[in-house]
Design brief:
6 helices; alpha/beta; about 20% strand
């Protein structure tokens, strides 16, 4: 793991406390800086939409710590889907899965699907175990370039988030997005990983 991919243990602890309480912050993901908050708190998700000025019809990617987290969203993988997911994860691949529940309409925005990613860095999966799943769109305003540094992220969000976790300059392509449907795989967006 590159040194710049990790944040300090004290920063992880602080982030975990804030995020578990429904707060919002900016931290490095396995790809680029993301503005993150609890995927299980509607108010937090809506706040991130407002902060990013994001199109409210576009769902956000959800970071998870393990396959077990999918059950929180009413998603049960069949054997073939589980094998495909285990082949892709952890890694820079986001997988779109059916999530038709009205309970999660604030996440799927009427699309009835959600994209999930289990990130590679162990510190990030440890954080996710403490906070639960997090929405993690790139740290920028809609239509602007993603922040490659915390300084750039602060220009976007200033004091409107509870924390910034600095891990140096982040340069990566966004995650590859794939869809698993009826056990077959299709690529929706080419990104950091060739599938």
């Amino acid at each position: 793991m590159k040194k710049t991919e990790k944040i300090s243990a004290s920063a992880v602890d602080l982030a975990a406390i804030i995020l578990a309480a429904g707060g919002v912050g900016v931290l490095p993901t396995d790809t680029i800086y993301g503005i993150v908050g609890s995927a299980l708190r509607k108010k937090t998700v809506e706040r991130i939409y407002r902060l990013r000025r994001r199109d409210t019809k576009k769902p956000m990617i959800v970071l998870i710590s393990s396959l077990a987290d999918l059950r929180l969203f009413g998603i049960a993988l069949n054997k073939k889907e589980r094998v495909l997911a285990q082949r892709m994860w952890p890694g820079k691949v986001s997988i779109v899965m059916p999530c038709p529940s009205k309970k999660f309409a604030y996440l799927h925005r009427g699309m009835k699907t959600l994209a999930f990613r289990m990130p590679e860095p162990s510190w990030l999966r440890t954080l996710l175990k403490r906070t639960g799943p997090l929405v993690a769109p790139s740290a920028n305003l809609a239509g602007d370039p993603p922040a490659k540094t915390i300084t750039a992220a602060k220009r976007y969000f200033a004091a409107n988030v509870e924390f910034y976790a600095n891990a140096g300059r982040r340069i990566s392509r966004p995650s590859t997005i794939i869809k698993i449907e009826n056990g077959t795989l299709s690529v929706l967006r080419k990104g950091a990983v060739i599938v």
